[in-house]
Amino acid sequence: MQALIIILLTLSGILTTVLGVASLRRQELPATRAFAVTMFAAAIWSFGFAVEILSTTLANKIFWANVQYIGIVTIPLSWLIMTYHYTGKPVWAQRGMPYLTSTVVLFLIVIWTDSYTHIFRVSPSVDVVTEGFTVLNNDYGSFFYFIFLPITQLPIFISAWHLMRFWIKSTPFHRPQRFILFFSLLLPLIVSIFYLLDISLIPHFNMTPLTFSLSGFLVSMNVFSRQFLNLTPLALDVVMSSMKVGVIVLDSDGRITDFNNATRNITHLASPQDIGSQFIDHYPELKILLDADDESFHDVPIKKNGQIEHFDVTVKAITGFRKRYLGRVITLTNITEIIELYEHVKELSIRDMLTGALNRGAFLEKAAQEIKRAQRHDRKFSLIMLDVDDFKQINDKAGHLAGDAALQTITKLCRKEMRSTDVIGRYGGDEFMILLPETKAEEARQCAERMHQQIATYRSPKYNFSLNASMGITEWQHGQNVDDLIQHADMALYKVKQAGKGAVALN
């Protein structure tokens, strides 16, 4: 029996070594690199176990048992990393690596110094199975059962949980492949549990390393034939990393569990240290997103480097088995350029291209809004109608470029006397309208006089023309609409024209 078991363990070690070396041919894929480590660890376990059985003294058996633990404590870690890469959660593996690795090193130190502390094994001995066939009775202590066993088994159970969920949620095409990976982990886990419960064909004999050769063979068949360890996660990584849309994954408590490269450019999330932090700590103004599921938000402002950028945001809920809520995915599409282009086009649509004043339609709309505001709050406002005197002569004598310059100059001179709340619009060829909110007639007349003084004293240094203007003023009265208001201002302007132009009149 001893010879048969040694042969089986040796074959198991050879097979897992070959599988590990073969998988390294695909070492550009993180999942297969982790699988290779698992196979090499299983080989150490199998070869170490074979030598332990061949050993005859207690000291030698303990030494080779300790060698086996190099593989035993590595397997849960490497399998968990492989699981995270396969299920599309590589960041979790990266974040947990330092803690898991330091735990492995700590356990190996405890195991290899146990001859001094006796906290791992209490009173190990050699048990005889048959004549010439002996096994090590480890007689594990409390450290093994209450610290070592729970911590080393936890990654295995986490892996099994993720793989089971991944298998259940998969499509019919992927389901057989994912079941094989789940079963490959479940098989050695069950055998290991039987060993811990002292249920074994051979007392104190752990059959787990033998099962890893079978598990490794099943996984490797999929790796090299169906390539299922690389297609899904690699495709996810490529898509996530190449997307121009920012993607942030939150868990059910609003913690950040992952984000793609585009998110680094869009937001100030920049390093793996941000994984695990609360999303609301980074963006308290976006708390509304944490209360949303399957919703879209248009033009959400986000501050970055002191500037406001605009985003279309979509929030999608992540649900698991039986629709249990697991978290949400937030996608961020930068629409700042679109918003700026829209505002630019909107501005062009309401502006007179030559003077920069509002065009006729935009000014009339503004006047209508001011009437509604004045009615609602019982306020006053006034309107100035301005006509450039002898504008045709400027065009005829100095040319149309001079005429354009004259209109531009009129606008600039009027703005000098206007407040930030006042509005100027080009009503016609050489006619302008100026809206003065919160302004009574007399105040409007004084403002118009100052404007007229600016215009009447101007002389163009380039085209050598002088300017003058006639201006009619009216104050809005309750019940008047836009047409009534303009008509009264036009009547005041008509008075100025009749009296010889170049003056200001109040209706």
SSE map:
Elements: H1 2-23, H2 30-54, H3 58-86, H4 90-112, H5 114-117, E1 125-130, E2 133-137, H6 142-169, H7 175-196, H8 208-226, H9 228-242, E3 246-251, E4 256-259, H10 261-266, H11 279-282, E5 295-304, E6 307-319, E7 325-334, H12 336-350, H13 360-377, E8 381-388, H14 391-398, H15 400-416, E9 423-426, E10 431-437, H16 441-456, E11 469-475, H17 482-498, E12 504-506
Parallel strand pairs: 11-12
Antiparallel strand pairs: 1-2, 3-4, 3-7, 5-6, 6-7, 8-10, 8-11, 9-10
List keywords for this structure.
alpha+beta, 16% strand, 3 domains, 57% helix, five-stranded mixed sheet, Rhopdopsin 7-helix transmembrane proteins, five-stranded antiparallel sheet, Beta-Lactamase, 507 residues, Alpha-Beta Plaits
Question: How is this structure best described in words?
Answer:
Helix 1 runs antiparallel to helix 2 (30-54), helix 3 packs antiparallel against helix 4 (90-112) and helix 6 runs antiparallel to helix 7 (175-196). The chain is of the alpha+beta class. Helices cover 57% and strands 16% of the residues. The termini are far apart. It contains 17 helices and 12 strands. Strand 5 (295-304) and strand 6 form a beta hairpin. The protein has a 5-stranded antiparallel sheet with strand order 4-3-7-6-5. It is rod-shaped.
